[in-house]
Structures are given as C-alpha cells and as structure tokens.
Amino acid sequence: MSENHLGSREERILQVMRSILIDVIKDTTTKPGLKHPLKQSTISNIRHGLDLITARQKELLEASGKSWDLRPTYPSAPQQYTEDGAVVSVTKLKKKDN
Length: 98
Hints:
Blueprint: H1 3-28, H2 40-63
C-alpha cells in the first residue's frame, strides 16, 4: 500500500478514536456535586489518550505541510468592493419615510 493511503487510514482511525472518547466524556459527564461514574484512573487514561491522539494528528498535518491552526482569519481592513459590487455599511442605511 502507498504511504498516502496508510496516512489517510491512520488519520481516519485517529479521528474516530478521538470522537469515541469525546462521546464517552459527554455521555458520562455528571452535574456538579454528583459522583462521577468513571474511576479517576479511567478519566486520566482518557485524557492521556486524547493528548496522544492530538499530538499524532498534529504530526501528520505538519508532515503533509498543512497547519493545525484552523481558525478563521479576517482581513486587517474591511474591503470596499466585492466581486458582486460595492460593500454597503448597514449603519448608514436610513429608514424610508412614507
């Protein structure tokens, strides 16, 4: 099998395992003051597992030349024109008198 195919398979496995662990956390989270159904050692192992998965996902992304930072970016100054036409500020709109 090619390296790319193995990498994508590994990425899918990591994503599924991460999703499963997060679902376990969501399903077992209790209200404040109640006893948690999982042992503290199990909770620590889940945290450690998520840390390892995240670290490997970062390694795979960096190896492929992609960035882990997937947050949206915004231009430093607002654009005055778009492909469809001029940008109109909503604050400058006035109510039409009848």
